[in-house]
Structure formats: C-alpha cells, structure tokens
Amino acid sequence: MPSERPAAITKELSANDAGETGGHQAGILIPKDEAILRFFPALDPREYNPRLHIRFTDTSGQAWTFAFIYYNNRFFGGTRNEYRLTCMTPFLRSHNLRAGDRLTLHRDGHSYRITCRRAGDQQTAGRIKLGSTWRVIPMRSD
To answer: Given this model, what pLDDT does residue 130 score?
Structure first.
C-alpha cells in the first residue's frame, strides 16, 4: 500500500555526508520522495523551518538524538526548500563512518533504531531503489 509507513530506510553515505570533504552542510539531505518522507513524523509546512527531535538507539543501546528539519524558508523569503536529518556528526564520528558505508534507520511505532554497515559488506538483496542513495527496505512477513 503506497500510504504505509516504511519500517526502515537506508542511505549510502557520500563523502560530504561523512564529513570527508571539509565542507559545511546542515545534516544529511532527505529526498522529497513520499515513500522516504513517510518514515519520519510529519512536519507542518506552514511553520518556518519546522523540526522534530527523534531519539534513535544504536546496536550497543546508546541513544542518539537527531533533528528532522524541513528547511522551507523559500516560502518565507529565503532560498532553501529541503528536508535534512541533522545533529548526526557525533554518531558518525563515534562509529568512524566513511563514504560508502550504509546507515539504516528503523522504526517500530514510535521507537527508532539506527544501524550501520561498512562499505563492501554484502546483503543488499531485497532493497528497492528510491532516489539517488536513499532506499526503502521492504519488510518480509514470513
């Protein structure tokens, strides 16, 4: 069903995402793809740059708080019109993530988890490509 909320999405990190380029960016860009955006809580586009803080737990049980933001200042006299997941630098550094590594965000109701896989690790079958490097992971019901 197209309106179902995905249980997981994944992104292969770019050099810019991983902080390897030395450039400054406000978090990882989230494409305006409805299937990807449905993973996250809804933001009110009538607000100026609405954001929600989401707590993710990694595989060791450590909690990380990321901000899901809709930079919509284009509609308020600015230039930006994009979604981003910010406040991720401590997580990326803690896990020594690099370009080509893959982040997977999991959602179960109101609980969120984050996992990562090193570049070169296998096990990519069953993923559907949506956008450049973001993907929805379909869940199997066995």
So the answer is: 40
Over 60: is that where the pLDDT of 125 sits? Answer: no
One-letter amino acid of 142: D
Using the structure block, give the residue that is written with the tokens 């450590």. Answer: 62
Radius of gyration of the chain (CA): 15
Res 39 pLDDT > 80: yes
8-136: CATH class: mainly beta
Percent of the chain with pLDDT over 90: 58
Cα atoms in the 13 Å half-sphere on the side-chain side of 78: 10
CA 121 to CA 64: how far, in whole Å?
24
The structure tokens listed for 72 are 């919509």
